[in-house]
Amino acid sequence: MDIGVSVGASFSIQVCVFGCCVGIDISVSLGATLTVQGPPFHGSVSVDLAVATITIPFGPQPTDQPPALPWDQFSLKYIYGGDPNGYATATHLLTGLLPPVPAGGQPSPGTQDQPWKLSTEWSFQTETHMPAGQYTDFFGNTWSDPTQVHTIDIAPMYQSDVDSSHLIVLEALDNGQWVQMTSGAADERLLLRADHFTITPVIGQVSEATYHYLPPDQVPAAANTLPVITGVTIKGFAVPQNQSQLIPIAKLFDAGQSRPLPFEAPVDLSGLQFMGLTAEQLAGFVSGATTLATLIGAANLLSGSNVFSQLRLGAGLPEPGLGPMSVRALKRFRSAPPLLTPITTGLTMKPVGLPAPPVILRVPPAVPIHLEQPRLRVVLQARAQPVTDAPVSLHTSVQQVNTAGAARMAAPQLNMVAGAKLHLVAAANAPRPTSLARPGRTLRNFDFGFASGKAHLDAITQAATDIAANGVSVAAGVTHVWDVPPTAGQQIAVSGGAAARVTFLAKNGRVLGDQEFVAASQITLAVPDKCFMVAVTCLGTLPDGVAAPAPGFGAVSWASAPQSSNPVVGWQSGNHVPQVGALSILTRGSNMTLSHQYVPTRGKHVTSDAMVQISDALASQSGVETWLPPAVSVVAVLLDQQDADAVREGDLAIAVNGATLQVPPLRVTGGQRRALLYDVASRDPNIDHIVVAVGSEQGWRLAGVAGLSGQAQQWATRWNGSVPEHIVSDGPLTANGSVTVRIISSTGGPQ
Question: How far apart (Å, rounded) are the C-alpha atoms in residues 166 and 148?
Fold first, then answer.
């Protein structure tokens, strides 16, 4: 609920001096907006002061998005129906069960001790509670049809494009052991023949909310279903052996009376057709009669003593027919005369002369429109990087003074004292250095309901055409997120001389591949399978003297940093970074995966693609997974203490994949913030990134994960007992530079 009020006032002053008048108009306006949401009860108050707007939130921040379920919880809830003793797959007998002996007894339950007793031909149907996109039968044949079966996601686990296959195996009990039956078995008892079986899939419907992942801002208000494989039907039948010649049954004769059997006996329909012609003649006579004549004729036909009374008697009806009151009602109170037509109408067997009845069309279900060409999904612009010039070199200049023979004096130097260090302390009233007070910008495609100006709409539309032709330019600090069609063999071509980052994303926003490189010449990357989106970021140009690193995950960010600072990869809670999915955020030389979906609001629209401040995304997270380049030698985990009791109970878990960290870590504490510095003891040589997962329910709030060079002891000494406020830099390497991006199809030409 939104409530707004605006108050304005204006007045005019006219000042006249010696006949010269000056008019002054002054206007003042003040506005306020109250936004209330719930449950739980929360909202915000915005005050518009004409020159600035102040927004103050109130109430608890709701956690609408549940955490991703692990497989064991998902399978128990959705596959086993909440019953640990339930079943995920089952086999049901359809036909072929022999009656019990003696008659009236209970049939066998189909267990190993009491198996089913079947006839020579039978049929089974398998059942699976886990939907499948394909099945493999006991002959090794795999069936899959994308036109009949939908792709399968696991939405409660935030997983997309899951490979799910239904496997069918036949086994025989041989000497007390179950042995698999195959088409190539040497034992005749275990041999399967394909001509004895017919296997067809069972296409069932499952909930779209469970098995189709949709971004939180695109969930439809509908109970849709998806077609998937929920089982197979297996029919086994006997095949005749040494089949004899077919018997011409139409030529057989009765052995006793020597006459043909009545398989093709002729039928004489001429009498029925004559009755039909008579009915047509009667209909022709009656069609030209008036209403009064038709009513009188109907009354004579149904009542009175005439020829029709004898016909009624012969048909078993009362001879008088209708009574006087019925005849009166027939003649006077009918809105239309009765239709006089015999029962033999239509026996002529002629075409009815009417057009075919209309075909009843079933309204097809609403299906999504397939993406046929790349679409610019969103443009994300980071905060601008300040431009700095080289400082002026110190020198002394004199004018109007004769310097001939003047002695040149060197600047005084401080005396070095062992164990001492010079600390420069700012004045008490000195302003604190701040960054640019401007957040990043988000511009989404209007296909997602995002309102923008006409110029932006035209630019986004033109970009969809340019990406397949001469390319689209991406400036430093800007990220383009493209939706790509599911076409095999596509490539991303990047050129322009600046550094770039290309990230391939799945349907749910998870990272499939991530590389940084310097596009001195055209760099071409293949789009991986199951890729639905591509994020391209221009990192700016490398500083002078920095060699271009080899392409790799976080390679450029690890080699250089903005404003000549130390190269540090990772993230901190104060960074402004692009979010490319409900769970995925791209950070400097790394990326982070959230445990809960984070759905910010931009322009009163919820979205999962926006420039966000990491602290906002971490507000409701219990765990975060961070990818770091494999070259890091020190991993720093930044924590803010929230609950001292939970901390004492050990409410912190850290896991690493792809490397081994040296424990215990070095601890650096400053107030409520603590930094844990781990040396990387060893790493897997076959990995392209290190995964660091940190989780805490109540005791700690994660404030950052960073990858550093050197050793943990060096950084602990450098920080000198306090955690710096800024470790990971924001924005691109430089404010200048751009790259050109093209999408190339599998044939080598434009998409």
Answer: 16
Note whether 572 and 703 are same-domain residues.
yes
pLDDT in tens, 352-408: 777 777 887 776 666 667 788 899 999 999 887 665 555 555 566 666 667 677 666
Could you tell me which residues are beta bridge partners of residue 179? 172
Asked if residue 326 lies in contact with residue 320, where contact means CB atoms within 8 angstroms, the answer is no
Q: Are 501 and 516 in contact (CB under 8 A)?
A: yes
R_g (Cα) of the chain, nearest Å: 42
How far apart (Å, rounded) are the C-alpha atoms in residues 132 and 229? 5
Residue range 396-443, pLDDT digits in tens: 666 666 767 766 666 666 676 666 666 666 676 766 556 666 678 899
Judgement on whether residues 301 and 182 belong to the same structural domain of the protein = no
Give per-residue pLDDT as tens, 468-512. Answer: 889 999 999 999 999 999 888 899 999 998 999 999 999 888 999
| Contact yes or no for 582/607 (Cβ under 8 A) | no
Give just the sign of the alpha carbon dihedral 57, 62, 63, 65: negative
Cα(323)–Cα(454) distance, rounded to whole angstroms? Answer: 83
What is the tally of helices (H) and strands (E) in the chain? 11, 38
Other CB atoms within 10 A of residue 745 CB: 15
What is the tens place of the pLDDT at every residue in 280-331? 888 888 888 888 888 888 888 888 888 888 888 888 888 888 888 998 988 8
* Per-residue confidence (pLDDT) for residue 750, from 0 to 100: 37
190: amino acid identity, one letter: L
Structure tokens at 245: 């010649």
As given in the structure block, the two tokens for residue 371 are 């993406």
Global pTM? 0.71
Rounded Cα distance between 651 and 334, Å, is 90
Gap between the Cα atoms of 85 and 79, Å rounded = 11
Q: Which regions in the chain score pLDDT beneath 70?
A: 1-2, 4-11, 17-19, 22, 25-29, 38-40, 49-52, 60-65, 250, 252-265, 363-368, 385-401, 403, 406-414, 416-426, 428, 430-438, 563-565, 721, 746-751
Residues 199 and 231 in one domain: yes
Largest CA distance in the chain: 160
Q: Which residue segment(s) compose the domain that 551 sits in?
A: 373-382+440-562+732-751
Which amino acid makes up residue 200? T
Q: 541, 734 in Cβ contact below 8 A?
A: yes
- Report which residue type is found at 72: D
Tokens 């690890």, residue? 558
Alpha helices in 110-204 (DSSP H): none
| Burial class for 153, CB neighbours closer than 10 Å (0-12, 13-18, 19+) | buried
Sign (positive or negative) of CA dihedral 443, 446, 452, 454: positive
Nearest to 500 by CA among 544, 465, 462, 552: 552
Question: Domain for residue 355, yes or no?
Answer: no
C-alpha span between 716 and 676 (Å, rounded) = 9
Cβ 723 vs Cβ 669: under 8 Å: yes
Place of tokens 């770039």: 500
Query: Residues 6 or more apart from 39 whose CB is under 8 A from it?
Result: 62
| Residues 736 and 721 grouped into a single domain | no
Domain check: are 577 and 703 in the same one?
Answer: yes
By the 10 Å C-beta count (0-12 exposed, 13-18 middle, 19+ buried), 225 is classed as middle
Domain presence at residue 721: yes
In a domain, 641, yes or no: yes
For residues 127 and 227, membership in a common domain is answered with yes
SS (H, E, C) 404-420: CCCCCCCCCCCCCCCCC
- 10 Å CB burial of residue 511 (0-12, 13-18, 19+) is buried
Contact 584, 511 (CB under 8 A): yes
How confident is the model at residue 479, as a pLDDT? 95
Residues 469 and 501 in one domain: yes
Same-domain status, 53 and 169: no
Q: Say how many domains are in the chain.
A: 5
